[in-house]
Specification:
Order of helices and strands of chain B: EEEEEEEEEEE
Structural class of chain A: mainly beta
Helix content of chain B: under 10%
Oligomer: heterodimer
């Protein structure tokens, strides 16, 4: 069964500090991995996408890494801001009969304090 | 602007009543999805549709029904058979299941059963 595990479940940091969120997956065959940001009461918004051949991808203060051998990904947030407070969801897509089926992690809830 | 519109944002229902959540997209996407989100859990797939007049059950379809009469519309009906319908419902779209493109989400509909 395809699974996506995220850690930690929740994280509290001070404004300006860095943090790293983890994602482990057992989705096979692997197609791509996305990190989404979901503000409270809103729909998720894509931050990054990574395919099998990519190791690192940045989007402003967000940097995602992927190790396809160990099936692990991380999302690093640099110089956190209050607006970074949200849930971060790791979504891994596999393929089945030519279709791309996403599997969602439960998310990491990040709170940034002033 | 292109995007996905869900309505209503908040909905209250008495036990035993059916309720329909609206989802409209102007992105010209073929695939549309309905997800349910509960606190501390990942998104769970209710139904998805790859093309007009066709839809498939997801992991938790019992107590729900959908229709796809138009490409841009994918309404979800929560029936009285759904035992625990209080949740946050998210509609999403994608260019097509054969395309590993980004899932675009609506802003969600929060259903509360009184």
């Amino acid at each position: 069964k395809n699974q996506v595990e995220q850690s930690p479940q929740s994280l509290i940091i001070l404004e300006g500090k860095n943090c790293t969120l983890q994602c482990n997956y057992t989705v096979s065959p692997f197609s791509n991995l996305r990190w989404y940001k979901q503000d409270t009461g809103r729909g998720p918004v894509s931050l990054t996408i990574m395919t099998f051949s990519e190791n690192t991808k940045s989007n402003g203060r967000y940097t995602a890494t992927l190790d396809a051998d160990t099936k692990q990904s991380s999302l690093h947030i640099t110089a956190s801001q209050l607006s970074d407070s949200a849930s971060y969801i790791c979504v891994v897509s596999g393929t089945s009969g030519g279709s791309y089926i996403p599997t969602f992690g439960r998310g990491t809830s990040l709170i940034v304090h002033p | 602007d292109g995007g996905i519109t869900q309505s209503p944002k908040y909905l209250f229902r008495k036990e035993g009543q059916n309720v329909t959540l609206s989802c409209e997209q102007n992105l010209n996407h073929d695939a549309m999805y309905w997800y349910r989100q509960d606190p501390g859990q990942g998104l769970r797939l209710i139904y998805y549709s790859q093309i007009v007049n066709d839809f498939q059950k997801g992991d938790i379809a019992e107590g729900y029904s959908v229709s796809r009469e138009k490409k841009e519309s994918f309404p979800l009906t929560v029936t009285s058979a759904q035992k625990n319908p209080t949740a946050f419902y998210l509609c999403a779209s994608n260019p097509g299941l054969g395309n590993p493109g980004e899932l675009f989400f609506g802003e969600g509909s929060r259903l509360t059963v009184l």
